[in-house]
Amino acid sequence: MSYQVLARKYRPQKFSEVIGQEHVTRTLKNALDQGRTAHGYIFSGHRGIGKTTVARILAMALNCRSSDKPVTEPCGICESCTEIRAGNSVDVIEIDAATNRGIDEIRELREAARYRPARDRFKIYILDEAHQITDAAFNALLKTLEEPPGHVVFMLATTQPEDIPQTIRSRCQHFSFRAVRFEEILGQLRDLAAREKIKADEDALALVAEAGDGSMRDALSILDQAIASCGDRLTADTVRQLVGAAHSGILEEVMQAVAQGSSEEVLRLADKLISEGHNPTHFARQMVRFLRNATVAKVAGKDSSLLQISGDERERVSRVAELFSEEDLARHLQIMLRTHSELGYKQEQRFHLELGLLKMTHAQRLLPLEQLLSEAGATSSGSPQIRSGSKPTMVAGPGEARRSAAESPPPSRVSNVSPFAADSARKTGSKPELSAEPDASPRAVVQASARVIMGSAAPAAVAVQAAEVAPEAIQNSEPGLAAKPPDVRNVVLDALAEAGHRMLVSMLEAGEWSVEGNELVVKVAASNMVIDMSLGAEAKRLATAAASGALGRPLKLKVTGGSAQTAPAASRNASNGSGRSRAEQDPIVRRMQATFGAEIRTIIDYRDKR
After folding, report:
1. How confident is the model at residue 33 (pLDDT cuts 50, 70, 90)?
2. Residues forming beta bridges with residue 560, ordered by sequence position
3. Can you tell me the distance from the alpha carbon of 455 to that of 596, in angstroms, rounded to the nearest whole number?
4. How far apart are CA 518 and CA 557, in angstroms?
């Protein structure tokens, strides 16, 4: 006799042998016991989880000749049971709906359904892949399915129940099959390995169960292939090579490199895996599963029943979960999910995989929007906030050294320094120049981290320079301010002069300076064209950073020319309650302007559109 694969050899023949579908088998057995069987059934669910098997068992239970009525468990030895199991029963017709999907085939089925069964109690039609039947064929079957002869039972098995018309579904009892749980697949594999006298490592069986992805048939097919590959001893390494999976230790190493921000190490590990022949799409899928398990371990603990993995895998995902916050893991999972979906249709899969891994590495440097807003609110309410645990350091002013009372914390993931500001300062090429003058007079120095101010980042030297304010200026300032407008004027002019903007300095020196809310307003005699030519983006960024550092809160720089003819118009708009004035007074808009340097460009008043 030819060899029979495990999926067919150990196919369940009774309801009690079906794995993972207790809600279905219990209902069908109760219906058989109470004599309440239906004339139409729809069995839907994942592939390889027992839909057709349950349909055959139900057919055997209905036609079993061990009793004069349907039984809850077929005997398996009578002629009806053996013929149905072998697939050659005259009264149980199995139809592949994928190839017999037209209206002509359904018409033949409808005509044959009128005749009584040749021997058994019921004439049973099992339509596999029923969702592929055409709409016209379903319409031809509709009346027969609604009021069939008493001796006919229809059973429709499908993986896509949503494609079956609602008129058909409403005439049948619908049973939704579930994916088989990891523990149930693992237990079944362990039992079958013992029956086949195969010595199998627990990790090897766990890999097979995980590769089955909730399908009992898939897991048995992989086990059959693994036994043929390994012989009498089933090992985890052999199974891993067979299914093309990367070692979980490599996945842990990748996430450790991500936690350290080491882009070079991440690329090296990716190159190693691809050089060994691993498929980028399959590796991305493994990363998605690994990150999902790490997220679950972070949220619910490594002993949670939500983790359907082996013991060693639980330890790995637990160690990775300790390296990241819940938000970081969710962000990494989202990145890898997008990468995995893109690999399915993109060319040069290796490049897209490496790009996804680099995105995860760079995501470590992102700061939450909530943190930026909260820090901006704390800064605008008083003096700048200084983190606890900071140490003294040297900060540089224009041409002299200053020792501050506090220093920003050392670089780390929780650093107060925005990565975008640091990158912007790096691109501008500005670096703080340190010097030490023993005769330098002491000044109160306010810490100014290189962060995004008004939508741009000031170079580090200018930010430090703008943070220096004389003690007498602080004493004479208004509550909540670090300096009066005249002191801000000196700081801004010094910063611009240090950067080489001589023409702009001479123009602003003769202007009228004032602080209005969160704006530093300078009124000069020059025309708007001259102002636009002199006040470039870089100069405006330097002046904004210097003014914000001097006052200890974010400011915007506004330079107006001529006799400020726009002020009366603005006051008229405010008095008339225009949309722009209301938007400018909105506290949320002010907060966004103060934090990110947002500008109001378009006003849409929906009250005017009613």
Report:
1. very high
2. 523
3. 4
4. 9
For 234, half-sphere exposure in the C-beta direction (CA atoms, 13 angstrom radius) is: 27
Phi and psi torsions of 233, nearest 5°: -125, 120
Label residue 409 by pLDDT band (50, 70, 90).
Answer: very low
Closest CA to 200 of 315, 215, 610, 208: 208
CA distances from 102 to 130, 146, 158, 282, 287 (A): 12, 19, 17, 38, 43
For the residues 341-365, what does the mean pLDDT come to?
86
Helix (H, G, I), strand (E, B) or coil at 571: helix
Taking the C-alpha atoms of residue 25 and residue 18, their distance in angstroms, rounded to an integer, is 8
Query: What is each CA distance from 493 to 399, 447, 554, 584, in whole angstroms?
Result: 15, 20, 18, 28
- Concatenated DSSP letters of 59-121: HHHHH-TTSSS--SS--S-SHHHHHHHHT--SSEEEEETTTS-SHHHHHHHHHHTTSPPSSSS
Mean pLDDT, rounded, for 141-165: 90
Report the C-alpha gap between 27 and 66 in whole angstroms.
22
Quote the distance between the C-alpha of residue 443 and its chain's center. Answer: 49
Rounded Cα distance, 129 and 101, in Å: 10
User: Which of 138-147, 451-460, 519-528 is the least confident region?
Assistant: 451-460
Report DSSP state, residue 450: S
What secondary structure does DSSP assign to 525-558, as a single string? SS-HHHHHHHS-HHHHHHHHHHHHHHHTS--EEE
Instruction: Compute the distance between CA of residue 435 and CA of residue 42 in angstroms, rounded to an integer.
Output: 82
Report the alpha-carbon distance of residue 226 to residue 219 in Å, rounded.
Answer: 10
Give the tens place of pLDDT for each residue, 358-400.
999 988 777 766 666 666 555 555 444 434 333 333 333 333 3
- Which one is predicted more confidently, 216 or 593? 216
Residue 81 in tokens: 């049971």
Which of 70, 134, 62 shows the shortest CA–CA distance to 92?
62
**Looking at residue 503, what is its pLDDT?**
78
Helix (H, G, I), strand (E, B) or coil at 256: helix
Contact at 8 Å (CB) between 249 and 79?
Answer: no
Percent of the chain with pLDDT over 90: 25
Q: What is the largest CA-CA distance in the chain?
A: 114
Burial level of 500, CB count in 10 A (0-12/13-18/19+)? Answer: exposed
The three-point CA angle 47-336-241 to 5° equals 60
| Cα–Cα distance measured from residue 310 to residue 211, given in angstroms and rounded to the nearest whole number | 12
Q: How far apart are CA 262 and CA 418, in angstroms?
A: 19
SS3 124: strand
User: What are 557-589's pLDDT values in tens digits?
Assistant: 888 886 444 444 444 444 445 667 777 777 777
Contact assessment for residue 468 and residue 397, using Cβ atoms and an 8 Å cutoff:
yes
Helix residue spans in 163-310 (DSSP H): 166-169, 182-195, 202-212, 216-230, 236-243, 248-260, 263-275, 280-300
Closest CA to 226 of 236, 213, 215: 236
Interatomic CA distance for residues 167 and 537, integer angstroms:
66
Say which DSSP state 512 is in.
E
**Residue, of 453 and 276, whose pLDDT is higher:** 276
pLDDT digits (tens, 9 = 90+) for 504-540: 888 888 888 888 888 888 888 877 777 877 788 888 8
